[in-house]
Write a sequence for this structure.
């Protein structure tokens, strides 16, 4: 996968525009009806920052462990912990675990909470999904772009059930890129 800086930044901006349009006007929008149409408060994002886009190897676990993740509705989901991405945020080394759904799909789920969770961003954390066809590079590395961090559906509507971020991905550093908390905040973090 090879993109120019303008390509990937334009793709993020286009994705944000499409998401906002869908949330504002679609009958299938996850936001409650009272927050749609003219009442839609919009979505909030940090500015895109190239310093939070990493091309890194996934350090694979020798024996991937299946873990149970609690959900926002007191349920459970299972994932396979497949490895970690080791990056540096500002000057702080950070290790973020990656998980595969146990449903057989090959995407990677990279959830995290950080020092902005509960103040500037959704308190339960944010997610990044990595698709092998888009984010796995020919040299074996992955493009882990924290600018693509998004809120789970339960951030917009408590009727949705979302997996909670495993404690190993609770980061002490602020990740000041990606999606901020929903301006139509109606939940208690």
């Amino acid at each position: 996968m090879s993109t120019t800086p303008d390509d990937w930044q334009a793709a993020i901006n286009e994705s944000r525009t499409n998401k906002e349009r869908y949330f504002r006007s679609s009958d299938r929008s996850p936001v409650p009806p009272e927050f749609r149409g003219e009442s839609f408060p919009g979505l909030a994002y940090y500015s895109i920052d190239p310093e939070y886009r990493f091309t890194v190897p996934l350090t694979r676990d020798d024996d991937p462990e299946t873990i149970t993740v609690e959900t926002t509705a007191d349920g459970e989901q299972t994932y396979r912990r497949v490895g970690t991405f080791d990056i540096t945020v500002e000057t702080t080394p950070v290790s973020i675990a990656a998980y595969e759904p146990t449903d057989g799909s090959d995407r990677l789920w990279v959830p995290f909470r950080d020092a902005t969770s509960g103040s500037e961003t959704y308190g339960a954390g944010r997610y990044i999904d990595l698709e092998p066809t888009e984010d796995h590079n020919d040299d074996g590395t992955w493009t882990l772009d924290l600018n693509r961090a998004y809120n789970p559906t339960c951030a917009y509507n408590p009727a949705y059930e979302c997996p909670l971020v495993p404690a190993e991905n609770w980061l002490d550093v602020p990740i000041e890129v990606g999606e901020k908390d929903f301006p139509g905040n109606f939940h208690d973090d």
Summary: The beta strands are 53-56, 59-70, 76-89, 92-101, 108-112, 126-130, 142-145. The two ends are 38 Å apart (CA to CA). The longest helix spans residues 5-25. The chain has a mean pLDDT of 93.
